[in-house]
Amino acid sequence: MALQTLQQIDQSKAEAFAQGMLGILNSSAIALMTSIGHRTGLFDTLAQLPASTSQHIADTAGLNERYVREWLGAMVTGGIVEYDPSDRTYLLPPEHALFLTRSGDINMAATLQMIPILATVEDQIIECFYKGGGVPYSAYKRFHQVMAEESNQTVVEALIDSILPLVPGSIEALQTGIDVLDVGCGSGHAMNRLAQIFPQSRFTGYDFSTEAIATAKTEAQNLGLTNVQFQVKDAATIDEIAQYDLITTFDAIHDQAKPDVVLYNIAQALRPDGTYLMQDIRASSYVDGNLEHPTGPFLYTVSCMHCMTVSLAMNGAGLGTVWGEEKALEMLKAAGFNSVEVKRLEHDILNNYYIVKKIS
């Protein structure tokens, strides 16, 4: 029977799949080493150096040469760093540095930190496959730190030039002075940046993480800001009525325990002529709609190993990262919003921007 089955399979298809799996194996290894390169500052060091020996690179970065040399081996065989065997020197091409350094256009190395972070909870996730439930936020080491870094380059840097202009009149209103709330504010970088730029406006940030709020408050204090405040608060307990002219959430709704309640609370807290700006993952609610998604496998993995499971850990809805545009529109309508416009930014392949209002 085994021989018959073997004869029936498409050998070329099997071989192509095996090659693909080998590529996945190598790419997974490179992902881990890329995270290390970011955290140790090796990419930033290489970007500033001409072709150099492993010893010179290690000395410049203040690291152990033996480990740096082995790391460089992964980078060279992975096609990230170039190697000259004639003098045994290594070079990070400037075209690669654009996507691997803190001064680059988009630092993919920072994003790849998520891979080892997610790997630390693999055992707990497997247990959930058998027993259900979820893995709580507290199980994820460095998560808020990495998310703050990611938010800095994807949200904070784009706020003024790209994101806020999606809301007509928002810049002018902020200059005049309005009340702004960011739900799920994390470490508060977005609100602190806006508080600096628009001193006439008043900003509030809510997040249920004491660690993140402490970071936000410290940053605000260090910047000498008096028009921003942060509070530890579960978004499902917001009970304010018509208090804000602009409410924002940045990739914060899909992992809420009670996203329907949160959206309803946001609708209630918004003034009648106010705007809710919801940035969330650009995807379909159905897997067949995501077959060509450029980061589909990554999004479903992050969902399974973080966004979905942290919600389920709180006996929540478990929407997951890929809750999708269809579900988002359905839930916004149910929350009381009757005007929703979905916008996209050319440089942002991951997110939709929902411009949401209540029109009587």
UniProtKB/TrEMBL annotation:
Residues 176-288 form the Methyltransferase domain. The keyword Methyltransferase applies. It holds the Pfam family WHD_Rv2258c. CDD domains: AdoMet_MTases. Keywords: Methyltransferase, Transferase. One of its GO terms (biological process) is methylation. SUPFAM superfamilies: S-adenosyl-L-methionine-dependent methyltransferases (SSF53335), Winged helix' DNA-binding domain (SSF46785). The keyword Methyltransferase applies. One of its GO terms (molecular function) is methyltransferase activity. It comes from the Bacteria. Residues 28-102 form the S-adenosylmethionine-dependent methyltransferase Rv2258c-like winged HTH domain. InterPro entries: Methyltranfer_dom, SAM-binding_MTase, SAM-dependent_MTases_sf, WH-like_DNA-bd_sf, WH_DNA-bd_sf, WHD_Rv2258c. This is Class I SAM-dependent methyltransferase.
